[in-house]
Amino acid sequence: MPAPLEYTAADLGAIGRGLRMPLIEHYFMQGFQGQEIVALLGLCHNISISLRHLKRLLQQLNLRRRRQESPVEDIAQVILRELEGSGRNIGYRLMWHRLNYIYGLRVTQDTTRRMLNIIDPDGVSRRSAHRLQRRVYMCPGPNHTIHIDGYDKLKPFGIAIHGAVDGFSRRLLWLKAGHSNNNPRLVAKYYIDFIRRSQGVPKIVRADRGTENTIVHRLQVALRWHHEDGRAKENSFLYGRSTANQRIECMWSQLRRMSMNYWINLFKICVTKVYLITATRYKWNVYGFALSHSFKRIWTALLFNGISTVSDSKDKMSVLSGKPDLMYYIPEAFEATDHKMSLDYSNEDLTQFEREYCETLPRYGCHDFFANALTELVGDLDQFEMPENVTEAIGLYVALNEIFEELEV
């Protein structure tokens, strides 16, 4: 039962005992061990239980680590389903994670590896290339440095992505898909939302010199103005080349291997078949309404159960490894400390910042004029049945393109 990307761990807040069982199931299905679950419940949700009590609750939920492996037929069926989509680009470890924690199967990594060798030998060969040795990255703890950047590979199809990652834990702090990642007011909104959720300020924000980061720069400096450490005020924002923004570039690389190649190839095929129009003035409005719901739902689940739960390092001496949520919320377990700085502004002040400096993504994924035109065609958009998969979304996209071409919108 994976939680939405923006409401994992402490972001869920102290929500009381009513959701204790769902939280336990959530953390168990994400692969956390017993002591880790007890620690997260206590520190992040104010739910205090013993390890012995947790084991009894897991028995009630019929959740067990060591149980008989699922039937080979079921495992093969799910692998084939994954290989039809973005799963064709992932290795056996991430495939094993999806089988166990997304589909609820019981399968070992060795079984997953052997079945992939049988079912998809060509894909295994393609993924067997050697890795490049990466630069050494050092970060003393969570919220010391957060890295923000945009991802432009889907821009030709009307999809602009923006994300942020914590440098120490590699935990995703936000990931947004919209019509633009160059609008500084949109990026500022993502930043303020993160500040409001965390109720603190990161010590350093790392970004490139694009115009989209100008407002975030000013907000970060303002929120750090009254602090007295050596990284306060102007020193709290670090500019650098996008290609040298190592942490988030690593995340984009994982994203490309995991699922983005699938989406890029899918959209290229659709362009070839004239399903997607890439040169019209309303292209992103059509995308925003027809594709964003399905894209965000499927893609967010893939990311949360892929990038945000895997943090591994081949060089144990230079970079710590572990599960991002644990590294972010319980840094003491990794001999680190949280570097989050105090927030000297109230929620009312943050709301005022939002009014002056921020802009939100359109409610329906498209401009108001386009939403009004759609309302005249289909009625109340809140009652409109959105597509549940990519095939339905592409079908809706094609239909909308035909309608608005005839109307000459």
From TrEMBL:
It holds the Pfam family rva_4. Residues 136-270 form the Integrase core domain. This is Integrase core domain-containing protein.
